[in-house]
Amino acid sequence: MKTLLILSALLLVAINLSAQDSEPSPLHFSYIANGQNYTNQALNKEHFQQNNFIISTQWEGHSRMLQALKFNMNHGKRPRNDWSSNSDRVSSFPNISDSGYTMKYIWSGDQHECRGFQYSPTLFIPENRQGEFIYQAADNRRSVFGFSYIRDSAQVINNPSSTIYKLYNDSTDYIDSVVLGKTWINNKFYVFGNPGLLNYDHTTGGTRWIFSINLRRLDIEETANNDDLVLSIKLPYIKRLTTKTTINGIINFSFPPKTTLNDTVRLKYLEDRGFAMKMTDLPVIGNTIYITNRMLPDRTFFENTGRQDITINAEFICNQIINPQLIAKGDTLGIEKIDIEVKYHGNRDVGINYCRIATPAGYDFVTGKSDSLIQAFYQAHINLIQSENYEIFGFYGSDEFPEHYYLEQRYKTHVPSVVVIIDE
Q1: Which DSSP helix (H) or strand (E) runs through 354?
Q2: Domain boundaries along the sequence of the chain
Q3: Could you tell me which residues come within 8 angstroms of residue 235 by beta carbon, excluding any fewer than 6 positions away?
Q4: Eight-state DSSP code of residue 19
Q5: Mean pLDDT, consecutive 10-residue segments, the chain of 424 residues?
Q6: CA 2 to CA 73: how far, in whole Å?
Q7: What are phi and psi of 17, to 5 degrees?
Q8: Which among 99, 188, 323, 391 counts the fewest CB atoms within 10 Å?
């Protein structure tokens, strides 16, 4: 029986993610498990029912501690006899490099800069509980970011199995009023580096962002034949001028969505992930996204595509011209908070699946555009490990990542369909 390799970490996470209106399916690989060859199949944890593991630290540790924890290999430096800086190393304790296997990164820099936050409209997070771990057991997206203001929050509280926020035209008490607001978390949007550099990557650096809302028409028998207003959306922000002074503003969008179902794109890469509304080809500056009846999938669209949901996107730019620049991490000046404010105008019954703000790279990542690259990275890693007579048990995700990488890490945990280890 081959030995399985696992690296120790503090937290194991296996989370599904809904991107657009369908979840990504696990990627397929060729691999060996329990001596059996599998070709073009998803990694199946049932194939890895073994009890002979290499267990190792990520870096190093005291020899007595490692022995007490029954570790049988050291990944970084050989363990110390004591904690002094010039301590002798324990030469008899095997080091992972002795096997000829060395740890390889399976993610390039671009895959580490896919930032964003996805907010569930059915995850109510009271303002006095922001920061607590609140989730919906029925939500297979395992959302952890939501809203502190949900109009008709009783709908959410009394129906914990519902993961679509439903708005009905006959609910006259909240027509033309804000129905979603006060997102949590809203103060972790940063700009990295110097956007003035010629080679600055605006798809990852924090100057360009894409707002997305995924929704559906609740009465599929209706037709998308007029421009009745259904929703309007704004992104309020707070900008810090000094350590003691802030001002409020509204984000200006540069590329709002187009306005008919003829202007959609199918998100089909390794698999079909649904439809998104195209954005305008040229800038159209405005601080409000208007969603009309003509933009919601109807019976004809459903019959032609098999899809009832649509993702509507709009891009905004924080470059000191169209909008102020975001705050740099560790700095004190710039936009420090971005909120989402959704107003319902009636006219049609509509359901909201999620809202999201992500960098262009983050948007591409969770909509499947990088899946073939991810698949190639994983397969190369599998081949390397198997060449040294090991078998895969799980993958290491990332070290101590901040909140704005949670969306990326959730996606990484889903596509291999086995345990991904995250060090918090």
Answers
A1: strand 350-358
A2: 3-108+370-423, 116-358
A3: 211, 250, 251, 287, 316, 338, 339, 340, 341, 357
A4: B
A5: 38 35 76 84 73 66 73 57 49 46 46 82 92 84 90 76 88 90 94 90 93 95 93 97 93 97 91 92 97 95 92 96 91 93 96 95 88 84 79 69 78 66 52
A6: 16
A7: -135, 130
A8: 99
